[in-house]
Design a protein that fits this description.
The protein contains three helices and 69 strands. β23 and β24 form a beta hairpin. The longest helix has about 40 residues.
Length: about 850
């Protein structure tokens, strides 16, 4: 077997020779092969996080996230942070506000480390039990840097200057290990103690590198015998074991790999163009990728299949990007954690927490930022089409045309140019692919352009003053080729024009020489008879009978059932069943069947998200996609179902633009363009998620005042444990105004959860309250109730699992059983005394009558 010494030296030498090549390969790989991630969210001080420096992350058994920061411990449910801090007057609070590590052991108990021992979270009472290590009279103190699981159920504790210890959970006692008690330990500056799956204990030190001990069957420690002489004497920031049982060590002088099958160490370095070679954190995700956090370098990944098939010198690390191919962060990533839903959490130095969702975004978002002396903005996308090879041609407002692959890779940029054959106007408002594959582009001020694919140059058609056969106006808004091969051009102010491709001459149709009712044409389509339907700005919908060259206006009569009062049509589409889809500004969407003369009108009143329809693209015979001022919507005519998608689903953040859409039939993808980028998606992949969020009751308040565990109200404790763990509560008569807060643990899309609740014993039906996260009840009568809440996920899929709480509201004292017994006793007494009174009265009357009788006899 080759020695560790030889392998490390050869690796460093080879790296020096191949550095330039490897750097280039990594740059290329980072741009084209980095795996797509889901939605990326950031949480910092403005969202409620107590501090921007996040040292450690963990998830508890309930699914709640915990963040250790430089100023308190944070618990997070997807929407709300609860911060735990030290209270000098409360011995059951955190022992210190600087929290280095938060850890959930295999029994589900949360532990934290601080500069004053470790803290055990007692979840039932939401308090902390402190455990202070006392390694000896001459030890530096009780500063604990890390805490990790031991295979016997106890915990390894790093004492940061006093060696390390094993914390025995049952007895709450420590067994201390230091240079005096553990033969072979070369330093007491131990920052982490990691027990791997093979019985080795790896110790990371402050400035002495790694130490490795073997744990025998009696839990005794002895030197493992690994050759560590070429491991740099440096700070160790993290130790991790991957699924192949290799050990990865994040150090201040490179990323150290111990290949188990070779029993060899390798020192790896990412490209030298990074600002540092300091590695802070290592973790593996569910895709078999190693995630590496760097100081001032963001996050990188390595496909661990390479470890099996390549030499370490050939490992290809790629930068982890978001959906816009931007790095997640440039800051230091000093903690990485994967939760039970496979989301990846990053703790940074100064930027708080990032979440990388495991759920792929339905829509890919591509945006280009533009900076000038005034402000920062985004490149706006307008006219777009797809060529016969499936490449996307994206017209912009001012920056010409981008020829692009479906993965976003730019193949060629056609910038505005005054050179012969150039694109003389950068504002490309319209685009169209002809039947023969010819690409046509309409610009804002320089007319119509035809691309010659052989010469890769443009032929320009523009308005020539005093030439009636030239383009009537240079502001081109729509281009359309009919079944006969005629090119129709809709202009802003110049009406409709038809191009004779043989002569290059145009025939004009304006309000002054035809029956068209507007000179501003925005949309054109053709029916099965070869007649044209034309959408205008100000004139509404026009029908052109091409045999008679006569225009007829539609839906402009306020007396008719369908009246498009705004008379602005942005988009038109004829489906396979010869129904005309009409997208208007402000009047919604109309589906018109010319054969049957029937219409179906969709507006905000019956399901649309917005009444401004910019573009229409078909998915199938009955399904179409539309772009609006409030995102994208999919309409299914067969079921009348409308699904809405907005920025939360990954769409660009601005408004969409008129007719800025395309469909790539070969790849079955759609693109919509807007003011802050463009979105690409595969309609067949847009289906409801099966993700089932866990529902929890998260808080209780009385008359607007939060009730904490153990709080006394009117001499009684209402919550003996966290509300999520409590099955029932009892409220006094004067506590019958209360609010129950609830949540659903959907970290990727918390704002898209929907809720419904009901109070059994009061409510007959469920109350559907969208994203509202609390329910308030006022002055409920005394009795027994059960509060229940259920949730739907980000795609509106409801689940029948509920969180519930039994509530017993006591009656007022005058309605208790003792009061009723008292009332009964009083009533009985009254009846008794009344009877006694009646008897006395009867006796008295008898005596009076007897006296009268005796007097009468005597006389």
């Amino acid at each position: 077997m080759k020695s560790c010494d030889m392998i490390v030296v050869r690796f460093e030498a080879t790296l020096g020779k191949l550095f330039l090549v490897l750097s280039l390969l990594q740059c290329i790989s980072g741009s084209v092969s980095a795996q797509e991630n889901g939605r990326v969210l950031q949480y910092s001080l403005s969202q409620g996080l107590s501090f921007g420096i996040v040292n450690s992350i963990v998830q508890d058994n309930q699914g709640l996230m915990w963040f250790a920061t430089g100023d308190g411990l944070n618990r997070f449910d997807g929407t709300t942070f609860k911060v735990f801090k030290n209270d000098p007057d409360d011995p059951q609070s955190l022992s210190g506000n600087y929290v280095k590590t938060v850890f959930c052991d295999r029994d589900g108990t949360i532990f934290t480390t601080s500069r004053n021992g470790i803290n055990e979270f007692v979840a039932e009472k939401e308090v902390f039990k402190r455990h202070i290590p006392r390694p000896g009279a001459n030890a530096p103190g009780s500063d604990v840097s890390d805490i990790l699981q031991a295979s016997d159920g106890n915990l390894w504790v790093s004492l940061n200057g006093s060696g390390f210890a094993l914390f025995h959970k049952k007895t709450a006692l420590f067994t201390y290990y230091n240079q005096s008690t553990l033969p072979g330990l070369s330093t007491n500056s131990v920052l982490s103690a990691f027990e791997d799956s093979q019985g080795l204990l790896w110790l990371g030190t402050r400035e002495s590198g790694i130490e490795v001990f073997r744990i025998d069957k009696n839990r005794k420690l002895a030197k493992a015998g690994l050759d560590l002489k070429n491991i740099p004497s440096t700070r160790i920031n993290g130790i991790f074991e991957d699924h192949l049982h290799n050990i990865w060590i994040a150090s201040a002088r490179g990323l150290i790999l111990f290949k188990r099958d070779e029993s060899q160490f390798y020192i790896l370095h990412l490209p030298a163009n990074l600002r540092s070679d300091i590695y802070l954190a290592v973790q593996e995700n569910d895709k078999g990728q190693l995630l590496v956090g760097l100081q001032d370098g963001g996050l990188y990944s390595l496909d661990l299949d390479q470890v099996k098939s390549r030499k370490p010198v050939d490992y290809d690390f790629v930068k982890v990007n978001d959906s816009q191919k931007q790095g997640i962060t440039r800051r230091s990533v000093q903690s990485i954690y994967m939760d039970r839903d496979k989301n990846v959490w990053l703790g940074t130095y100064g930027e708080g927490v990032y979440l990388i969702s495991s759920i792929p975004e339905k829509f890919r978002n591509f945006a280009t930022k533009i900076q000038d002396s005034r402000a920062e903005s985004y490149l706006r996308y307008y006219g777009m089409c797809v060529d016969k090879e499936g490449h996307l041609w994206l017209g912009t407002d001012g920056d010409g045309i981008y020829k692009t692959k479906s993965d976003g890779e730019i193949m060629q940029h056609y910038k505005p140019s005054d050179k012969p054959g150039g694109l003389t106007d950068g504002a490309v408002i319209a685009a169209h692919t002809g039947r023969d594959g010819t690409l046509w582009f309409g610009t804002y001020s320089k007319g119509l352009f035809q691309l010659n694919s052989k010469t890769n140059s443009f032929r320009q058609f523009s308005n020539i003053p005093n030439d009636p056969s030239s383009l009537p106006k240079n502001d081109v808004r729509v281009i359309y080729e009919d079944k006969s091969g005629n090119i129709w051009v809709g202009t802003n102010g110049g009406g409709l024009a038809r191009l004779d491709r043989q002569t290059g001459r145009f025939t004009h149709y304006l309000t002054r020489n035809s029956s068209i009712n507007s000179n501003d044409v925005r949309a054109i389509t053709e029916d099965q008879n070869g007649n044209l339907w034309i959408g205008t700005y100000g004139g509404g919908l026009n029908y052109l009978d091409v045999m008679q060259m006569k225009f007829t206006s539609f839906f402009n009569d306020p007396k008719k059932p369908v009246f498009l009062s705004n008379r602005i049509i942005f988009s038109l589409y004829f489906d396979a069943r010869e129904r005309l889809w009409i997208g208007s500004e402000g009047n919604g969407l109309v589906v018109y069947n010319p054969q049957e003369n029937t219409t179906k009108h969709f507006t905000e009143k019956n399901g649309l998200a917005n009444d401004v329809i910019y573009a229409i693209q078909p998915e199938s015979a009955d399904r179409v996609w539309i772009s609006t001022n409030k995102g994208l919507s999919r309409i299914d005519l067969a079921t009348n179902k409308i699904d809405h998608y907005n920025q939360s689903n990954g769409l660009q953040g601005g408004q969409f633009n008129p007719n800025s859409a395309l469909y790539n039939a070969e790849e079955r993808l759609m693109v919509f363009g807007g003011t802050q980028g463009w979105n690409l998606f595969y309609p067949s992949a847009i289906r409801p998620s099966a993700f089932k969020p866990k529902i929890m009751l998260s808080g209780l308040s009385l008359f607007g005042q939060d009730v904490a565990v153990g709080d006394e109200k009117d001499g009684e404790v209402i919550l003996n444990s966290q509300l999520s763990d409590q099955q029932d509560i009892t409220l006094q008569p004067n506590q019958s105004v209360f609010t129950i807060a609830y949540t659903a643990l959907n970290y990727a899309y918390p704002e898209l959860n929907s809720f419904a609740y009901k109070m059994e014993g009061l409510d007959k039906d469920w109350n559907y309250v969208k994203n509202e996260r609390s329910a308030t009840y006022r002055y409920l009568p005394a009795g027994d109730y059960t509060f229940k809440v259920k949730a739907a996920n980000q795609d509106g899929v409801w689940f029948e699992n509920t969180a519930s709480l039994r509530i017993h509201i006591l009656p007022p004292w005058y309605r208790t059983i003792w009061a009723y017994l008292l009332y009964l006793g009083i009533a009985g007494a009254l009846i008794y005394y009344y009877q006694q009174y009646k008897m006395r009265q009867a006796e008295l009357n008898y005596q009076v009558q007897l006296a009268h009788f005796e007097t009468h006899v005597a006389s």
